[in-house]
Design brief:
single chain; 13 strands; 389 residues; TIM Barrel
């Protein structure tokens, strides 16, 4: 079997209202899906590359012009070889950022192909631990005309729907590390932010978890002020409190609080994650499969986390393709902990699938037996959101 080429699918969606977080405000969603073809017309794989606000054209150019020539003609089942080939051939200007995001898409698609050729779901090929996953709802942005009571009502709805936890944004304060260059609206104070957290904590109920995400926006000292109050309120984890480069500051924060520090979805490569774990900066290891280097890199990070007796989760905030990569990875792991369910407006979680990707019951998602990533994508349905790069 040989790789014959790839297709890119640029998607755009305008949400009904803007979402604000410490790094800015946005109302549009963008995504780049990748379909890797083989010389068997019935065998192909789907992947996704993280872009998070960047131009579609930069991602598609890297995929089509740089990575595609490196993999065409090769056996798609040699995943480790192809991952290392692309990484080393692009080493001098790669290693992080857009190159790793694009490599993530290819890697995820190759796992999809491997599962289809083997007739097994990817999670089983990865080790097949196969326990059901607890699901948490993820939203809690700052919004215009959205009060603390409105936030509490949404958190209560998630609890009523059975979700085992809820994750919300914090850190949109004047002391944010990037406040001097990012003109983010709806700035609040530490006191105002903590009022939001207390309201959410009460709404979710004492038997469920609340997580807080500062999206890499605080210096260590400001994060400590948050963490002190989080201990009193009762928070499951404090996500991305600092920038990932601030390993020492995050490690100092982790030593001073009993709240586990989660991160970093914005970081890439096993080397950087190992450095954070070695420093004691994170206790919940949380990469993004479509940004960190795909399933191949993420499972190595998960294995190192297991050696250090740390929990592992994965960001899930884009399309059904990244969702499929995330859920297959978590199903496979003995230290897989919590599945993120994006609650913000998006048609891409279900509307281009012919069949649901997973079953949800009482806050739990169950493993499936469909081969590959488990996706059945209706390409005609993608036309409603196709964009020109």
């Amino acid at each position: 079997m040989k790789i014959t080429g790839l297709e890119t699918f640029c998607l755009g969606y305008q949400m009904p209202y803007p979402l604000t977080y410490p790094r800015g405000e946005y109302q549009s969603r963008e995504a780049v899906l990748v379909k890797v073809h083989t010389d068997d017309p019935d065998i192909f794989g789907w992947g996704e590359a993280a872009m998070w606000g960047g131009p579609w054209a930069t991602t598609t150019t890297v995929l089509e012009k740089e990575i595609q020539p490196l993999i065409v003609g090769h056996d798609p089942r040699r995943l480790e070889y192809l991952w290392e080939k692309v990484y080393q051939e692009t080493y001098y200007h790669g290693r992080k950022g857009i190159l790793l995001s694009c490599l993530s898409a290819i890697d995820i698609a190759l796992w999809d192909i491997l599962g289809k050729t083997a007739g097994e779901p990817v999670w089983r090929l990865l080790g097949g631990f196969g326990r059901p996953l607890s699901a948490y709802a993820s939203s809690g942005y700052y919004r215009r005309d959205y009060s603390v009571d409105d936030l509490a009502a949404d958190v209560a709805k998630a609890a009523a729907a059975g979700y085992r936890g809820y994750k919300m944004k914090v850190g949109n304060v004047a002391a944010a590390v990037h406040a001097g260059v990012l003109d983010t609206p709806l700035r609040t104070t530490l006191k105002g932010d903590l009022a939001r957290v207390r309201a959410a904590r009460e709404a979710i109920g004492g038997d469920r978890d609340l997580m807080c995400d500062a999206t890499t926006s605080l210096d260590a000292r400001t994060a400590m002020a948050y963490a002190d109050e989080f201990e009193r309120i009762g928070i499951r984890w404090f996500e991305e409190p600092t920038q990932p480069e601030n390993i020492n500051g995050c490690a100092e924060l982790a030593r001073r609080t009993r709240i586990p520090i989660a991160g970093f979805e914005t970081e890439t490569s096993k080397f950087n994650f190992a450095a954070m774990m070695d420093a004691g900066a994170i206790q919940m290891v949380q990469p993004d499969a479509i940004q960190v280097g795909g399933i191949t890199e993420a499972r190595k990070i998960a294995a190192y986390a297991q050696m250090r007796h740390l929990g592992f989760s994965s960001k899930n905030y884009s399309t059904a393709v990244s969702l499929a990569a995330c859920i297959n990875l978590l199903y496979a792991l003995p230290n897989g902990d919590y599945f993120e369910c994006d609650m913000d407006p998006s048609p891409w979680r279900e509307e281009f699938l012919r069949a649901p990707l997973f079953t949800y019951d009482d806050g739990m998602v169950e493993p499936f037996d469909r081969p590959g990533l488990g996706l059945d994508i209706d390409e005609a349905a993608l036309a409603a959101w196709r964009a020109t790069p």
